[in-house]
Prior knowledge:
By secondary structure, this protein is α/β, with parallel strands linked by helices. The protein has helices spanning 31-42, 66-79, 90-96, 140-153, 198-202, 294-302, 306-312, 356-377, 386-409, 413-444, 448-452, 467-484, 490-503, 525-537, 541-559; strands at 22-27, 47-50, 102-103, 106-111, 123-127, 136-137, 157-159, 164-170, 173-178, 183-191, 217-224, 249-254, 257-263, 275-281, 316-317, 322-323, 335-336, 339-341, 520-521. The strands form three sheets. Strands 4, 5, 11, 12, 13, 14, 15, 16 and 19 form a nine-stranded mixed beta sheet that branches. Strands 1, 2, 7, 8, 9, 10, 17 and 18 form an eight-stranded mixed beta sheet that branches. It has a two-stranded antiparallel ribbon with strand order 3-6. A hairpin with a 2-residue loop joins β12 (249-254) and β13 (257-263). α10 packs parallel to α13. The longest helix is centred in the last third of the chain and has 32 residues, at 413-444. It is globular. The chain starts with 21 loop residues before the first strand and ends in a 6-residue tail after the last helix. Residues 1-13 have low confidence and may be disordered.
Amino acid sequence: MAVEADKAGTADETAPPDGGIFDVAVLGSGIAGSILAAVLARNGVKVLLVDASAHPRFAIGESTIPYTLVALRTIAERYGVPEIKTLATFTNATRVIGPKFGVKKHFGFLLHHEGEPQNPREVNQFGTPGLLHEASHLYRQDTDAYMFHVAVKYGAVPRQNFAVADVDFDDAGVTLSSARGEQYRARYVVDASGYRSPLASKFELREEPTRFRHHSRSIWNHMINVTPTDSLFDRSPEDTPPSPWYQGTVHHMFERGWFWVIGFDNHPSSRNPLCSVGLTLDTRRYPKPAGMTPEQEFYHHAARFPDIRRQFEGAKPLREWVSTDRMQYSSTRSAGDRWFLLSHAAGFIDPLFSRGLSNTAEAINALAWRLLDAVKDDDFSGERFGYVDRLQQGLFDYNDSLVNSAFISFSDYDLWTAVYRIWSWGANAGTYRLSEGLFKFLRDGRDQHFRDLEEVPNPGLYWPDHAGFKALYDEMVEECLAYEAGKVTAKEAADTIYAHLERAPYVPKHFGFAERDLRFMIPNAKVMARTARWLRTDADPVVRRLMTGNAKEALKAKARGRRIF
């Protein structure tokens, strides 16, 4: 699908190279807007990329997941923008952008109880398989600026420090106006600006109140001198995880809240001393206290848990603390005639499970080819982008029910592990599914493989075309809500979910997705051999195809001395 494009583009250009109007104006030059602008410009679209501020700048959303990496690689290959692959591995990001990134070998979860040391039996670690994927902690100030520069290189016309005051639509296009009276014209506008979306405001798209069940607010910063998580504990080999805690994304959970610890300084090649830290709280359980600064509140909650308190002793913040009100917001729709709300311009849930960049990449992948066709056809009707709207709304809704279930389960470790296993297997299954489409595309170059992936009954669900997984997921949500309402005990809810996990032929056995007492899901050769036998004899045919296909590609890559992605 990619076409040849000039690699030049100067920052002082304020009109398309041939005059006239732009094909697409993208509001917001963060990672979402810049990736989309790069894709469109690379494929011959006249793009205006505007932003109220300038790069480099602080941003969070640093933790990647395997699905994110495959989605980024898919966009890079499908639309001919190889630079996007730079973000898809720790090695590439470090080599191309610089030694500012942290390695991510796992998701780490540690449950805490107020006033008590952390119980080593109440932990979980889910590995990001190194042979398949090389996840990282992205230093967003550098990655976002890098993608912005890539977009400009391919011909997107940048206009930084341009605060959009009005967006006016007519039959021929869109007019963007600033408070200073500057104006630009485009045929279509994508709003990737985030919460303060000009389009959401203009069309009164925000749902009040939001439809989302989950409630949370957050406090965050970048710090230096954060104690590595592993230094907090002196534990037996049995209670020590296969991968060091600090070499992954650490989640310190407690009833109705969690801290994150995302190190950029957790690898010898890194020259970045920073660590991203944050606290997320249920707004109903923990309303904002009067007379307490964000920093004071952060340390107040850290002090409730002895090991969390010790992790942040002596740490120093690098900037002003950010403290939000309730973070959840939603929009009635994200597509209309000549406009689209992308990613966080349309809604937001919670940083738990690191879905932000993953959802953004999935939406861009579905939006970009439709937009390229629309530019050729001069048809920018909202109906043309109906699937992307449904996909994006589904991504928000399923993430909402997942995170809400997790917050409910934080009060009981056994119930939490049931939610955790459904999340981890669903995320893996979705990654295998997208990888299968990418492998097919790399073999024959047919874009139809990606379009076929959109023919699903449940857009936005990790595994959107498997009825069994959908039933399992729905049961998890229902049981957690029943527990919250006092209709069942935590044990009863966990028992129901685990019974489903254990009997389901579409949930791998031996690996850890169905094994109730397995804390560390970083399988060794013996576990892999047992899972392989299960695949041959008892697995759902779809699971057999997905897992076997990905394993074969991994072995091919290993024989070549490289990873798949």
